[in-house]
Write a structure and sequence with these properties.
By secondary structure, this protein is mainly alpha-helical. It contains 18 helices and 8 strands. Its EC number is 4.2.1.2.
C-alpha cells in the first residue's frame, strides 16, 4: 500500500495500481452497477491527454521532459495497456469529474515511472497541474464522447451496416423474379416479388445509414479548450488550435473545433442526433426481423415462404423444433437501443445553466448502443441472412391462390364485378382463374393469361421501357 494525499486529506492506495486518491474515493462512493465506461471512451480520454500535452508544450506552458512523459503514458492508455486501472462505475459523479481524474492519476503515475520516480510523486508530475493542464472535466468528458462515438461508428458500426445492406441487395437481385403474395393488414394483397420485398428492407437501411453519416458530421465538433464553462479560462493562446491539429494526427479523423464552446458545454445535441439515427436504424431492423420471423413461420402451419438457417435446437421440450433465434436476438438488441435513446434524451435535456452534468450516462448509453448494434448486426448477417433461402414453389402456389389476383380484372370488367368474382372464389374455395374461366366475361384466353399472371402484376413480367 502507499499513502497519497488530495485536497481532502490522506488516502491509502494499493501500491500496484496507477490510479490515486480521487479515484479511490470514487470507487468507494459509487458502488452502483459494476459496469464501467467502455475501452473506446478510455482511448478517447487518452487521445485528449496526448493532444493537450503537445499543445501545452507548444505554448511553452508545460516542460518538455514532463510533457513527453505524459504523452508516452497516455499513449500506453490509448493502446489498452492500462485498462485494468480504469475502475469507476459508469454511474458516477456528474460531468465525469471522477472519470477524468481517474485518467489524470493513471497517466501521472505512469509518467512518473517513465521518468524514474515512484508513484505518488505529485510534486514532479501532478494529475491536475500537469496532466489536466488547460482542461476541465466539463470539456474533456464531452469531447471524449464525441471522439469515442466517432471512432466506433466509423471503424466498427458502419462497416457491418454496409455489409448487411450488401447482403440484402444480393437477395434483391437473386429473387427479383420470384413471385409471392403481397400482404397488407396481414390480408391477401396484390402480388410482389421476393426481390421487391427485400428492396424495401435495403432502402430503409440505406436511409438509416445516410442519417447516421449526417449525424456523424456533428460529432466531429470537439470542445477542446472550453474548460469549465466555455470561456476558455486558464488555457494559453493557441491551445485549442494546436490540440485539435494533434488530435487529428492521433486519430486520423478530421475533427474540428466547436463553433460555440458554451453550447458544447451546456448541451448534447450531436449525441442526441446520433442516438436518434441509431434508433431509426433499429426500427428498420425490427421491421426486417419481424418480417423474417413471419415469412419463415411454420414450417407446416405458417407462411413458410423463406427458410432461415438452422443454427441451434429451439426447444427444451419439443424435439426437432427450430426457432428464428437470430432474428429474435436482433429484435432484442434493437429494443435496447431504443431504451438507451430514452435515457440519452433524458440526460440531454437535464443540463442546467452552464453545464450538462449527465455526460457519464450519455457516454455509457451511446457507446452501448453502437457496440450492441455492431455485434447484433454482424451475427445476424453471418448466421442468418447470408444463409436465407426462398421456398420458390411454395411462394408461386400461394401467389396463384391469392384472391387479390382479382384486382387486375377491375380495369376490364369494373370494380363491382371483380369483387363478385373474388367473393365467389372465396365462397367456393376456388382460385380467381377458375371462377373467371367458368364465367362469360368477354375475355379471351390470352387476356385472362395476361391479366392473371402474378408476375405481370408485379411489374417484373414486362419490359418496363
Amino acid at each position: 500500500m502507499r499513502v497519497e494525499k488530495d485536497t481532502q486529506g490522506e488516502v491509502v492506495v494499493p501500491d500496484d495500481v496507477y490510479y490515486g486518491p480521487q479515484t479511490t474515493r470514487a470507487v468507494k462512493n459509487f458502488r452502483v452497477s459494476g459496469q464501467r465506461l467502455p475501452p473506446a471512451f478510455i482511448r478517447a480520454q487518452a487521445a485528449i491527454k496526448m493532444a493537450s500535452a503537445k499543445a501545452n508544450m507548444k505554448a511553452g506552458k508545460l516542460d518538455y521532459m514532463l510533457g513527453e512523459a505524459i504523452y508516452k503514458a497516455a499513449q500506453e492508455v490509448r493502446d489498452g495497456r492500462l485498462d485494468d486501472n480504469f475502475v469507476l462505475d459508469a454511474f458516477q459523479s456528474g460531468a465525469g469529474t471522477s472519470q477524468n481524474m481517474n485518467a489524470n492519476e493513471v497517466i501521472a503515475n505512469r509518467a512518473l515511472e517513465i521518468l524514474g520516480y515512484h508513484k505518488g510523486r505529485y510534486d514532479v508530475i501532478h494529475p491536475n497541474d500537469h496532466v489536466n493542464m488547460s482542461q476541465s472535466s466539463n470539456d474533456t468528458t464531452h469531447t471524449a464522447i464525441h471522439i469515442a462515438a466517432t471512432e466506433t461508428i466509423t471503424n466498427e458500426l458502419l462497416p457491418v451496416l454496409n455489409s448487411l445492406q450488401d447482403e440484402l441487395d444480393t437477395k434483391v437481385k437473386k429473387y427479383m423474379q420470384v413471385v409471392k403474395p403481397g400482404r397488407t393488414h396481414l390480408q391477401d394483397a396484390v402480388p410482389v416479388t421476393v426481390g421487391q420485398e427485400f428492396s424495401g428492407y435495403s432502402r430503409m437501411l440505406e436511409l438509416g445509414i445516410m442519417q447516421l453519416e449526417s449525424a456523424l458530421e456533428d460529432l466531429k465538433e470537439l470542445n477542446m479548450g472550453g474548460t469549465a464553462t466555455g470561456t476558455g479560462l486558464n488555457k494559453p493562446e493557441g491551445f485549442s488550435e494546436a490540440a485539435i491539429q494533434e488530435m487529428n494526427h492521433i486519430t486520423g479523423v478530421d475533427f474540428r473545433l466547436t463553433e460555440n464552446t458554451f453550447e458544447a458545454t451546456q448541451g448534447a445535441g450531436a449525441i442526441l442526433f446520433v442516438s436518434s439515427a441509431l434508433k431509426g436504424i433499429s426500427v428498420s431492423l425490427i421491421k426486417l426481423a419481424n418480417d423474417l420471423r413471419l415469412l419463415s413461420s411454420g414450417p407446416r402451419t405458417g407462411f413458410g415462404e423463406i427458410v432461415l438457417p438452422t443454427v441451434q435446437p429451439g426447444s427444451s421440450i419439443m424435439p426437432g423444433k427450430v426457432n428464428p433465434v437470430m432474428a429474435e436476438m436482433l429484435n432484442m438488441v434493437c429494443f435496447q437501443v431504443i431504451g438507451n435513446d430514452t435515457a440519452i434524451m433524458m440526460a440531454a435535456q437535464g443540463g442546467q445553466c452552464e453545464l450538462n452534468v449527465f455526460t457519464p450516462v450519455l457516454a455509457f448509453n451511446i457507446l452501448n448502443s453502437i457496440t450492441i448494434l455492431k455485434g447484433g448486426i454482424y451475427s445476424f448477417n453471418e448466421r442468418c441472412l447470408k444463409g436465407l433461402t426462398v421456398n420458390v414453389d411454395h411462394c408461386s402456389k400461394l401467389a396463384e391462390s391469392s384472391l387479390a389476383l382479382g384486382t387486375s380484372l377491375a380495369p376490364k370488367i369494373g370494380y363491382e364485378k371483380a369483387a363478385e368474382i373474388i367473393y365467389e372464389a372465396h365462397r367456393t374455395n376456388s382460385t380467381i382463374r377458375e371462377v373467371v374461366e367458368r364465367k362469360e366475361l368477354g375475355l379471351s384466353n390470352d387476356e385472362i393469361e395476361e391479366l392473371l399472371n402474378p408476375l405481370n402484376m408485379t411489374g417484373e413480367g414486362h419490359d418496363r421501357t
